[in-house]
Amino acid sequence: MTRARTKGSGTRRGDTSVRRKLPDDLPSAAAAALDDLMNAAGMDGEDENDELLTIPQESITERKKPPPAPGAKRPATSSSLSDSMLIEETVLPEIPVLQVAVYEDAHHLASAQGAIAAAGHIVATGSAGAVGAEKILAAVRRGGIDVVIAALPGGEPVIDAALALEPNRPIVIASIVGSGLDGVRRAAAAGADLVTTRPHDVERLAPVLLAAARLTNERRLTTTARGSEQVLRARLEELADPEPRGLQPFELFQRTLEVEIKRARRFEYPLSVALFAVEVPPPPPPAGIRGILRARAGNALINTIRDIDLATQLDHERFLVLLPYTDLTGAAHVGRRVIAAVAENDPVVSAGRSFLPRVVGAVAGSKPGEEVSFAKLMKDASRALDQARRDGAELAVQP
Question: How far apart are CA 319 and CA 58, in angstroms?
Fold first, then answer.
């Protein structure tokens, strides 16, 4: 049994007279006095109230434990809040506001519109009867409608008009009288996406409109992703599957040229480019003639260059050719062959005039080990081409 020290009432710490009367054997005297007090109060070792003076062993053990380290998680105690006592804060998701067109029976139209507004959406238009069907059809075809609610039977033309706007059509909700299972069958047969039963109220219609909002959002994301995929796929096919020995897309040409420039620097081999422009003598030819001359010049060019060369069209009149492993002498030889091949084409006759396909060329390049860039090659070739045009020459070589 654990004993507790007591302090008599009226005793003061500063009382020297009491201090002088304390016995020398203070622990033994205190224990004897406590035993006398307990006996006088009718307490003994068998009394049921002994537990009031007993400190549980678990409490002693807990007190002996060292304090938790800083940042450590404290163990749960009996005073901790239970899960049932916690209040969870619920945040409702943001629901997009829908533009809804309603085609309903006359005695259900008002309740449908009220339920839509109570659910937080907008009634873009609402109507009933044969005249009302034409009004709803016109609104659906104009666009801007997210959801169409159409009563069955009678609303089949409205549903068909909405489905015809694929891929940017609205979500279709069929409205029927009857059980939910029967409504599902009838809605599926009509091509509707969702179904609701009448009479209309916000408790019944709000969940269906939430599903319509989710479907609308997913359709928009899918349409955007599909469009992006088609654009990327077409671009990749254009870059990855060019026509053999044809004019390459400029992006592919530029990437190949950059790779060849790096190889030329590393392995110190020559690299050149050739620039050609279609020349048409004045006065300007009739519409379409320049395009025919350009097409014939391009066809002659790609059938004249070597297998290792790569050609692209820069604009409506210029062609650029990459000549790997080729110095200026070899590039000039390729340029002359291209000019001659273009000139061998038959003339184009229009409006009493004869137009002979003709190109002016220029070549520029780098020597082995020389620093070179795409911008420098283009600048040198363009300068040489301009000089050839001013001088009336067929080919210019940029040293």
Answer: 93
* Residues 29-50: tens digit of each pLDDT: 666 666 666 665 554 444 444 4
Cα separation, 249 vs 270, in Å, equals: 24
**198 and 285 inside one domain:** no
Within 13 Å and on the Cβ side, how many CA atoms surround 125?
20
Q: Print the domain residue range for 162.
A: 99-219
Which structure tokens are listed for 396? 């210019």
Structure tokens at 275: 């620039």
Q: What is the tens place of the pLDDT at every residue in 281-324? A: 888 888 788 888 899 999 999 999 998 899 999 888 899 999 99
Strands 395-398 and 359-366, by their bridges, are parallel
Q: Is the distance from CB of 177 to CB of 198 less than 8 angstroms?
A: yes
For the entire predicted model, the pTM comes to 0.41
Q: How many helices (H) and strands (E) does the chain have?
A: 12, 12
- Residue 363: how many CB atoms within 10 A of its CB? 30
Q: Give a yes or no: residue 171 inside a domain.
A: yes
Domain boundary, last residue among 198, 219, 240: 219
Question: In this structure, is residue 115 part of a structural domain?
Answer: yes
Provide the residue count of the chain.
399
- Tally of structural domains, the chain: 2
Geometric angle at alpha carbon 68, from 66 and 71, rounded to 5°: 160
